[in-house]
Structure formats: structure tokens, C-alpha cells
Amino acid sequence: MSKQAMSKPGSPQAASHQQAFDEPLWWGLFSAGGVCFAVLLPAVILFIGVLLPLGLLPADALSYERATALLFSVPGFLFVGAVVCLPLFHAAHRLRHGLFDISVGRDGFNKKLMYGAAALLSMLALGLVVAGMLS
Amino acid sequence: MNKTSSQRLPPLKRNWWLKHRFFKLYMLREATVLPLVFFLLCLMAGMVALVQGADSWQGWVGFMGSPVVLALNLLALAASLYHAATFFVLFPRVMPLRIAGRSLPDNMIVAGQWAGVVVVALLFFWLLGRA
């Protein structure tokens, strides 16, 4: 649908030049995010989303001091890239195509909305790590 | 994916995927990202709390323990495992591995990826689980 909007009337060659050069990027991010979602997220959700709030981790495992030291570091920056940013792009891609599957909205708009939100949240997440490292 | 197919085919009804088990499972797989996004937003809220200070961090741990949040994150855990089960079987189809001229059996590639999940979990246990 975004491709329709791109074609200019009066240019007969427009139809043959509607290659979407950005799609490999989105599929690449989707794929990389899918690997992270499958391999890393089960453990992350289990330990941080379930065991930590249930009090099943040792008391000082993620105390404020320990969590700060772990997250606000170079490994912490890479952790956020793999556990937050790439899965966000994976989710954005699935949501975009899912919305197309159930005929909600226009794909051209959904695409900008989803990848835009993933990019903004990714920058915010990485920015938080940098802010924590600097403070 | 060709998004202009609606020009040539009659438009599908919104509930087309409810008519067959295969398509329902496809939609379930697509929906695994909904609880994932919830967990990621929770995680980012935790990062904000960590930047703010010790009190905010304790408040965030309490928020994560509230019943609705905990239930949604348990759903996210289940969704991540379902996603993993559907994603791992794609690997040998997209990128068949060959070692010394012999192609690696599909189930070995899938098992290797599940081993990766276990290794990451053990890494977390080593980092966070010991008293």
C-alpha cells in the first residue's frame, strides 16, 4: 500500500522501480531480535520478571547497588542492546505484519509507527544506561 | 511480502485466520510479542527507577510483584518459550548447516538452540542465583 502511494502518475517506469530497499534491514533486525527473544528472554523473564519479585533470589542478588553495578557498565550496555533493542524491532515487525493480517490501519503508516516506536524506545533504553554510567 | 496483493485478490475478512488450526497457531505466534512488549516496558521502567535511586528501585521491585504484573510476566515467559519452539525449527530450513560435507540433522540444530537457552539460564543462575 505504501508502494501505491509512492508511484507518481505520469511516470510509466514508476511501477518497475517500486523495490523496497529498506525491507532487508527490517527482516534482518526481526531475525536478530527473534534469536535474542528465543535464547535470552526466557532466562531474563524468569529471573527478573518472576524470581526477583517473588523474593526467590538471594537478598543481595539484585540490590540497588548490585543492579546499578551490573547494568551501568559496558556489558550492561550490550545486555540492553540484545535484550531490549533487538527484541523491540522483532516485536515491531510482527505487530506491523499482524496489523496487516487483520486489516487494521494502512501498512505505510503502521510501518513508520512501529519501527519509529522501536527506534525511539531503543535510544531511550541505551540512553538510560549511558546516563547511569555518567552519573 | 507483497502488500499490494489486495489489488488482485478479494480482500480477506478480519477473522480469516480463525477458520483453520494452522492459521490460529500462526496468529498465536504473532501474538507472542504482546506480552514481550509488556515485559520490555516493565524492564525499561526498572532502568528508569535504577537511575532515580534506591527507593525507586525498591518501589519497582514491589510493582513487579503485584499480581497482575506478575501474571502478565508469567505469560511473557510462556510466550518466549512458545516463540523459541517455533523459531528454532526455522533455523535448519533457512540456514542448513554442513559439517565436513555432511548436513547436520534438523533435530540436532534445534536441540543445540535449546541447549543455548539452558546455558543462558545457567549463566543467570551463576550471576544471580547463588546465596
Structural notes for this entry:
- Chain A: The chain crosses the membrane at residues 25-52, 72-92, 113-134.
- Chain A: It comes from Halomonas colorata.
- The complex is a heterodimer of chains A (135) and B (131).
- Chain A has 135 residues and is mostly helical.
- Chain A has helices at 2-6, 23-39, 41-51, 64-71, 74-101, 107-134.
- Mean pLDDT of chain A is 89; it is low at 1-15.
- Chain B folds into two domains: 13-88, Fumarate reductase/succinate dehydrogenase, transmembrane subunit (3 helical TM bundles of succinate and fumarate reductases, Up-down Bundle), CATH 1.20.1300.10; 96-131, no CATH class.
- Chain B has six helices and two strands; from the N terminus they run H-H-H-H-H-E-E-H.
- Chain B has helices spanning 21-31, 33-52, 54-64, 67-88, 91-94, 106-129, and strands at residues 98-99, 102-103.
- Chain B has a two-stranded antiparallel ribbon.
- The chains are: A mainly alpha (135), B mainly alpha (131).
- The interface between A and B is large, with 58 and 59 residues.
Summarize the SSE layout with pairings.
The complex is a heterodimer of chains A (about 140) and B (about 130).
Chain A: H1 2-6, H2 23-39, H3 41-51, H4 64-71, H5 74-101, H6 107-134
Helix pairs in contact in A: 2-5, 5-6
Chain B: H1 21-31, H2 33-52, H3 54-64, H4 67-88, H5 91-94, E1 98-99, E2 102-103, H6 106-129
Antiparallel strand pairs in B: 1-2
Helix pairs in contact in B: 2-3, 2-4
Keywords (chain A): Cell membrane, Membrane, Transmembrane, Transmembrane helix
InterPro entries (chain A): Fumarate_red_D (IPR003418), SQR/QFR_C/D (IPR034804)
Pfam families (chain A): Fumarate_red_D
Which whole number gives the mean pLDDT of chain B?
A: 91
Order of helices and strands of chain B: HHHHHEEH
Distance between the termini of chain B: 50 Å
Number of domains of chain A: 1
